[in-house]
Specification:
Length: about 550
């Protein structure tokens, strides 16, 4: 009996090591202790339910395999939770799963190469060692005290015990479901996948259609028009020479600065590509986040009689087709350069021949959407070797070999991005048509500016993650045709969030439609500042 009690005690110690590791490590990295405590309580109760179910319904080898399997599962969940706290000082959320679902294999590899540092390696090794020890202990108990895996046996003597266990499990399940389910990793993963799949189905049926009937009273001039919208990736205005950065990361755009409208206070609605572009490219905004299916900028342009094209150096396929890919399918023709080769990453110059091809098409009215690879993490893969200009020690409040390396890579990527954007402007300019080019980024990145961190996350977002370039070039013919063009220079300091882009886009393209709100256009004389709300309830301008 003493040996049996020892076996139970040993098993319980090792069985709850996933909870113990998560608790001990998480407390050092959390910035929200009360949320961590809730997660610890939930994880402890969830683990208890798993083990009690094994005791209730299984015996012998089946019980052994149940414990063996779920020890691995619980260690995996604990490792993922702990790693998330280490990287982001926050619990895993549904938004994090959305990002995972939209991430391609290449992006995952780049992510790991950037974030897998010595700290994460140490955490990984710690979990692997304790997992092996726990499984060995379980195996030892099975071989030396087999009665543990056969007790309790269901008979008249232990009916009260079974009744208590069933009551215990039922109460825990009810409590977790009622109070703590939003802290449960499996529940979050399931809920995120279900809602993501529902969104996928909706987007595939609505946004891929060339025309969306939700747009009403759409009209546009039949004059010749060539408009280009360049969507960047992970490029913060903070690191751009055009925005006052101490390094000249924009030599080519700076050469033509007198031809540009450089808006100085534009932010993205989110710090991740998919949630950001879902709002930027559709009628969705902070006040009405669930109306994405009601229409995209592509469908609006189609309804206005434009021939639309999508030229992208982003991979179109993730676990499913990405939501941005669904929006792109509504264009007349799509070109995905990253789907044409077996290389991990293609430099953005790969786009230029396709842009030439579309610019040479004989459409009276056309709009070209260009989605760059931009300054995507890992930054060193975003530019060719001959753009490796910045190699000296950069300025940063967080000096280290890693920060110096990442800042230099990022600045070189922005230097290359400068070349790409300027090349596109030059190609449009050479056509000598009624044309504009609008360039913005989906979001920015923090690269050791305000925080000892590289990349982007919405859990501890910094201003560089939101501060994006918004740059406009226009031809002389466009300037003479656009009403009150000369007043636009007065609007460059407007505080603007890009979830209202569809209104600015239609205003600047002189497309009228029933849902147009001129006060939401950065180009309009009737523009009205609205609170720039981020992360659900935080006013960006109050930070």
């Amino acid at each position: 009996m003493i040996l049996f009690k020892k076996s139970i005690f040993k098993f319980l110690v090792y069985a709850f090591i996933p909870v113990i590791l998560f608790s001990l490590i998480g407390v050092f990295y959390t910035s929200q202790l009360k949320y961590l405590i809730k997660e610890i309580v939930e994880f402890s109760l969830f683990s208890a339910i798993i083990y009690v179910i094994g005791l209730l319904i299984l015996r012998g080898k089946s019980r052994y395999f149940w414990f063996f399997f779920f020890l691995i599962i619980l260690f995996t969940i604990s490792y993922l939770k702990t790693s998330f706290y280490y990287l982001y000082q926050s619990k895993v959320t549904i938004s994090a799963f959305y990002v995972i679902f939209e991430t391609t294999g290449t992006e995952s590899a780049n992510y790991l190469s950037t974030y897998f540092d010595l700290g994460l390696i140490a955490i990984s090794l710690l979990f692997i060692v304790f997992l092996i020890l726990s499984l060995k202990q379980l195996n030892t108990i099975y071989k030396t005290n087999n009665s543990f895996f056969y007790f309790p046996e269901f008979n008249l003597k232990n009916i009260p015990l079974f009744f208590v266990l069933i009551l215990f499990v039922g109460s825990l399940i009810y409590f977790i479901n009622l109070k703590l389910k939003h802290n449960n990793f499996i529940y979050l993963a399931h809920d995120a996948y279900v809602s993501y799949s529902e969104a996928q189905q909706l987007f595939q049926t609505e946004l891929v259609k060339p025309i969306n009937t939700n747009f009403s009273n759409v009209s546009s001039s039949n004059n010749q028009q060539t408009y280009v919208v360049i969507i960047g990736e992970s490029t913060s205005a903070r690191n751009m020479g055009l925005y006052g950065y101490y390094r000249n990361t924009n030599p080519l755009l700076s050469e033509i600065k007198d031809e540009l409208l450089v808006f100085r206070d534009v932010i993205s609605p989110h710090t991740h590509t998919i949630p950001s572009l879902n709002k930027v490219l559709s009628l969705s905004n902070h006040e009405n986040p669930d109306v994405i299916h009601c229409g995209s900028v592509v469908q609006l342009a189609n309804a206005a009689g434009f021939s639309t094209y999508w030229v992208s150096n982003q991979q179109p396929i993730g676990i499913h087709e990405t939501l941005v890919t669904a929006i792109s399918k509504a264009t007349k023709e799509q070109f995905y350069t990253n789907a044409l080769t077996n290389k991990q990453v293609e430099y953005d110059e790969m786009l230029l021949p396709f842009i030439d091809e579309v610019l040479n098409k004989k459409d009276q009215k056309k709009i070209i959407f260009i989605h760059l690879y931009g300054t995507h993490i890992s930054y060193k893969f975003s530019y060719p070797p001959h753009f490796n200009k910045f190699t000296d020690q950069p300025k940063t409040k967080f000096p280290s070999a890693r920060s110096f390396e990442q800042i230099n890579h990022y600045d070189n990527a922005i230097l290359y991005n400068d070349y790409i954007v300027r090349s596109i402007i030059d190609k449009v300019k050479a056509k000598n048509e009624n044309a504009y080019v609008i360039y913005f980024s989906d979001h920015g990145d923090e690269v050791f500016q305000d925080m000892d961190f590289v990349g982007h996350n919405e859990y501890h977002a910094t201003k560089p993650m939101y501060e994006i370039p918004f740059v406009v070039w226009t031809s002389e013919k466009f300037q003479s045709d656009y009403p009150h063009f000369e007043t636009l220079e007065n609007y460059l300091d407007r505080k603007y969030m890009l979830d209202d882009f569809i209104h600015s886009f239609s205003d600047f393209s002189q497309i009228e439609f029933g849902q147009l709100q001129p006060e939401r256009s950065i180009f309009n004389k009737d523009f009205e500042y609205r609170n720039r709300m981020i992360r659900q309830a935080l006013n960006y301008d109050d930070r």
